[in-house]
Write a structure and sequence with these properties.
alpha+beta, about 190 residues, two-stranded antiparallel sheet, 4 helices, binds zinc ion, five-stranded antiparallel beta sheet
């Protein structure tokens, strides 16, 4: 287990589509150690999630976990989830304007439209196939991490260029209003 370097925006491995994990290999020491490193690196950086290619592993795995996160104090909690070869599909056209940051995009946040009802399918770290419906704010987190596997970072999806701001400016001027918007979303969808 190790805390790994997090690749930064512009790195070619972040911009490439990650490849599927051979399901037969999920329980291998190699894949399990990748997952351990992802969890350690995410937690050390106070991230809400991290994708394998953010630490240089070009395969379709991400991990998500939200506890009492000082980086995202308004986020509803999500238990540690490991998603291997995930697929995501929208269940409706309902969207939320999600203000996002990323461990690979230092000092920058911006608004991205995300679906709030999605169906996901993935293998967990024990190679069990999982199908779930994810609603509310947690669905935004899933879509952010999934985008990484296709080489997409949140700034690529920001249409409202005025929404770009530093973390410091966000906390000073925008976080209070945004926390209210997230609270209303969570109240509606339960997550
Ligand atoms: Zn990210």
């Amino acid at each position: 287990m190790a805390i790994r370097e997090i690749l930064q925006i512009g790195h070619p491995r972040l911009a490439s589509r990650a490849s599927e994990v051979d399901v037969e290999m999920i329980k291998s020491i190699e894949v399990q150690s990748w997952i351990d490193d992802m969890v350690d690196t995410m937690r050390a950086a106070n991230g809400a999630g991290i994708a394998a290619n953010q630490i240089g592993i070009p395969h379709r795995i991400f991990v998500i976990e939200v506890g009492n996160n000082p980086r995202y104090p308004y986020k509803p909690k999500i238990p540690l989830t490991v998603a291997i070869n995930p697929t995501i599909s929208a269940l409706s056209d309902k969207t939320f304007v999600s203000n996002e940051g990323c461990l690979s995009v230092p000092q920058m946040r911006g608004n991205v439209d995300r679906h709030v009802e999605i169906e996901v399918s993935y293998f967990d770290r024990n190679a069990n196939k999982i199908n779930e419906v994810i609603r509310g704010y947690s669905a935004c987190t899933w879509q952010h991490e999934y985008d990484h596997l296709d080489g997409v970072l949140f700034p690529h999806r920001v249409e409202d260029k005025e929404s770009f701001c530093s973390w410091h400016v966000f906390e000073e001027f925008r976080q209070a209003d945004y926390a209210n918007e997230v609270e209303a979303l969570v109240a509606q969808w339960g997550a």
